[in-house]
Design brief:
Blueprint (H helix, E strand, L loop, with lengths): L2 H6 L6 E3 L8 H7 L4 E6 L7 H14 L4 E4 L1 E3 L2 E2 L13 H8 L8 H23 L4 E2 L23 H17 L6 E4 L20 H5 L4 H5 L6 E4 L16 H11 L5 E6 L7 E2 L2 E2 L2 H11 L3 E3 L8 H16 L7 H9 L9 H5 L2 H8 L3
Parallel strand pairs: 1-2, 1-12, 2-3, 3-6, 7-8, 8-9, 9-12
Antiparallel strand pairs: 4-5, 10-11
Length: 368
């Protein structure tokens, strides 16, 4: 069965949820079997050891073989698994600094070393995750380092969109060496605003022309390389009154039509403050999800809510079914096809096999 025919037999499973602990509870198993659940995102609280993580992901796949198991694992301060053999990866700014450091080796030597190190970083990152059963990391960060963002900071490669683009492309090459796709974030750019969308609603007052000429350039230049994109919970009032992740103008008109992006679009976390304020008022998770999906997202994330009790996650799943029944949102088979296309196409190396892999060992040597 082809991916497209498989997608046509499935209505659409757009929700990416989380779990509270190191193992699956009865509620977790029930939610994983819900027809709207298509992904699961892991956090540091879900990590104890490689053996525990591998057992957890194996059980998830036994319940839903098509479940997309995800994690935010970028390097630097955003790296969920750090012990029991996982390599400590650098923040992406280190690669940008390498690019600028030619030393006495001649013009451009720093750029070449940085792109090689970026590929090595992507390969190590993806190979280690895949060896433990993780399918996708939400990386690379394509935000530009304007210097004032508290939430982005050293997660960005560089201020120059040309440097950020080529380093991101090199890192994505490394991901592919281990059979993992990528997710560029946060479209069209979160690096200019100072506010943190986890706890606030950032506003970027620049014009569309200014944004497209600067922060959004990596998305244009990587339109054939990006497998998925995550928009920012930022309002750009000169373009749309809605945050980018809830804006058909940004997602359908600009990202897809103008920039030519054909991959999957994830919403950022619906539990963030920047995600719940639509049209000046706070909405429910199900309402936020339906707005995001109608605006052009293929999948919606709800993170860190499994610990809040049964009601919160089930509120989204059951509420979205009600939204579907009332015809305010309808499943999209094209979105389901894009979700399925993010699943790895090759079997991963086991951890022991990885430790004996010459390609992996060479990548370890080339890390910055």
């Amino acid at each position: 069965m082809t991916r497209n025919s498989q997608a046509s037999s499935v209505s659409h499973s757009p929700v990416v949820l989380d779990i509270a602990g190191l193992t699956l509870s009865a509620d977790d198993r029930r939610r994983l079997q819900h027809p709207l659940t298509g992904g699961l995102i892991l956090f540091a609280r879900n990590w104890q050891s490689r053996a525990q993580l591998t057992e957890l992901t194996s059980e998830i796949k036994s319940i839903r073989p098509d479940m997309l198991v995800c994690v935010d694992h970028e390097g630097g301060r955003v790296q969920r698994f750090r012990t029991d053999g996982f390599t400590h990866l650098p923040p992406m700014r280190v690669l940008g600094e390498m690019w600028m450091n030619d030393g006495k080796r001649g013009a451009g030597s720093g750029a070449l070393e940085a792109t090689d190190a970026a590929t090595a970083t992507g390969h190590v990152l993806a190979a280690e995750l895949r060896a433990c059963g993780v399918d996708l990391s939400f990386t690379p960060v394509l935000d530009l380092d304007h210097g004032g963002s508290s939430v982005i900071g050293d997660r960005a490669f560089h201020r120059d969109p040309r440097v950020a683009t080529l380093l991101a492309k090199s890192l994505m090459h490394g991901l592919l060496l281990a059979g993992m796709h990528n997710c560029g974030k946060h479209f069209p750019g979160h690096g200019f605003v100072k506010a943190d969308s986890h706890v606030d609603v950032p506003v970027d007052k620049r014009s569309l022309k200014a944004i497209l000429a600067d922060d959004a350039k990596p998305y244009e230049w990587l339109s054939t390389s990006l497998a998925s994109v995550m928009p920012a919970h930022v309002i750009y009032p000169k373009v749309d009154a809605q945050p980018a992740g809830f804006s058909a103008r940004w997602l359908k008109d600009i990202l897809r039509m103008q920039l030519g992006f054909t991959g999957a679009i994830f919403s950022d976390d619906l539990s963030m403050a920047g995600a719940r304020c639509i049209n000046g008022g706070e909405v429910t998770y199900a309402e936020a999800a339906s707005v995001a999906l109608n605006a052009g997202c293929d999948m919606v994330l709800l993170c860190n809510q499994s610990e809040a009790g049964i009601g919160t996650v089930d509120e989204l799943l059951d509420g979205l079914l009600e939204v579907q029944a009332s015809n305010h949102w309808q499943p999209d088979p094209d979105s389901e096809a894009r979700r399925l296309d993010l699943l790895p196409q090759t079997a991963p190396l086991t951890w022991d096999e990885l430790m004996h892999s010459p390609v992996y060992q060479r990548s370890l040597e080339r890390l910055p």
